[in-house]
Amino acid sequence: MAIYLDNAATTFPKPESVYRAIDLTLRHLGVSPGRGSYQLSLEAGRLVLGVRETVAEFFGIRDASRVVFAANATSAINLALFGLLQSGDRVVTSAMEHNAVSRPLHALAARGVEVVRVPVDACGLIDPAVIRAIVREGKGPTRMVVLSHCSNVTGVVQPVAEIGNWCRREGILFMVDAAQSAGQVPIHVEDMGIDLLAVAGHKSLLGPPGTGALYVAESLLPTPLVCGGTGGNAISPQMPEELPERFESGTLNTPAIAGLQAGIEFVRQAGLQKIQRHKAGLLEQLLCGLRGLPGIRCYNPSGNWSLGGVLSFNVEGRDPAEIGFLLDEEYGICVRTGLHCAPDAHRSIGTLPSGTIRVSPGLFNTEKDIDALLAAMEKMIGWR
């Protein structure tokens, strides 16, 4: 069986409870939730409500109705950015963003939104003082600060609580892309001053692909990107103002949402600290081994990098794509190579255009998996 070390893309395998929840729901509650008055539909609706409450509790959200289900973090980010920003608005972001943030902002810039990117240090870490200075230097008010909580390239975890609470005091919206951090790093929207939180269900929350969520603060009412049936007030041609119905047109993927709940419950029972320690231990083992090999350069911060769950490295004189192909073809080891959908991050750390080899162990990986990867690397670079 292959050794899977690309959990930053999608965690695999999932806990057995996730598989069971999806199968059970698909077999017994695979109907449109809340769309009918019959018992099955009402039961499915109650299931979805329960998962919404689980998500709210996990992220410190007071009102579960402000949790909107989405197909993934990218969909959630697009809803927030396109739903709130207009021509003339000013947005501050960073030079470490994933394309899920960068590309919507690029499109919005063509519509008259001013986008300012904050520089980062060599490890990709943002200095909150630089954000404060850039906001204050602007010719007009800043409408929003939007940042990735955790880099999927270097693993650096940004100081979102410090930045978010400052934004709240200044009356600036603060949006966090938590695709990489949700389920891996503690997040509390109130304590961190977060107004908009986008999460992916298929990564460290251990849910299935096709799941995600957006938290929308009580003071905000974005314009929907998708309009259609919501199961209530069908006579009105307008989308409802009430959340979550305003942003959940059409039939929800109830089995996948049930799987997301099982994933979150598994994470909660295992404990974030235990999960962090396990992954960090594997990454430290990998870093130590790689540093003993010639021609290896690791792109890791000196501080909290291991909390992000990834380690990027390169082999001098070798294309990352070649290394990834050989690891898969000859050793059955799955790693990610290239730009990881984050060219700005690679530009910041100097790894354009070829990118890096990225290793991201999961909860079910072991020290033997890391030993196997290190042994394969030794053979490939001819180290004896």
Explain the layout of strands and helices.
Elements: E1 3-4, H1 16-28, H2 39-58, E2 67-70, H3 73-84, E3 90-94, H4 99-109, E4 114-118, H5 128-137, E5 144-148, H6 160-170, E6 173-177, E7 196-200, E8 212-216, H7 254-270, H8 272-291, E9 296-298, E10 311-315, H9 320-331, E11 333-334, E12 336-338, H10 343-349, E13 356-359, H11 367-380
Parallel strand pairs: 1-11, 3-4, 3-5, 5-6, 6-7
Antiparallel strand pairs: 2-8, 7-8, 9-10, 10-13, 12-13
Provide a quick synopsis of the model.
48% of the residues are buried.
Query: What is the residue-mean pLDDT, rounded to a whole number?
Result: 95
Termini Cα gap: 27 Å
Number of helices: 11
Work out the number of β strands. 13
Low-confidence stretches: none
**CATH top-level class of the largest domain:** Alpha Beta
Spatial strand order of the main sheet: 2-8-7-6-5-3-4
**CATH topology descriptor of the largest domain:** Aspartate Aminotransferase, domain 2
Helix amount: 25-40%
Structure description:
β3, α4 (99-109) and β4 form a beta-alpha-beta unit. With 384 residues, the protein is an alpha/beta fold. The chain starts with a strand and ends with a helix. α3 runs parallel beside α4 (99-109) and α8 (272-291) packs parallel to α11. It has two domains: 3-12 and 271-380, Aspartate Aminotransferase, domain 1, CATH 3.90.1150.10; 16-269, Aspartate Aminotransferase, domain 2, CATH 3.40.640. 38% of the residues lie in helices and 14% in strands. It has helices at 16-28, 39-58, 73-84, 99-109, 128-137, 160-170, 254-270, 272-291, 320-331, 343-349, 367-380, and strands at 3-4, 67-70, 90-94, 114-118, 144-148, 173-177, 196-200, 212-216, 296-298, 311-315, 333-334, 336-338, 356-359. The protein contains eleven helices and 13 strands. The model has no long low-confidence stretch (mean pLDDT 95).
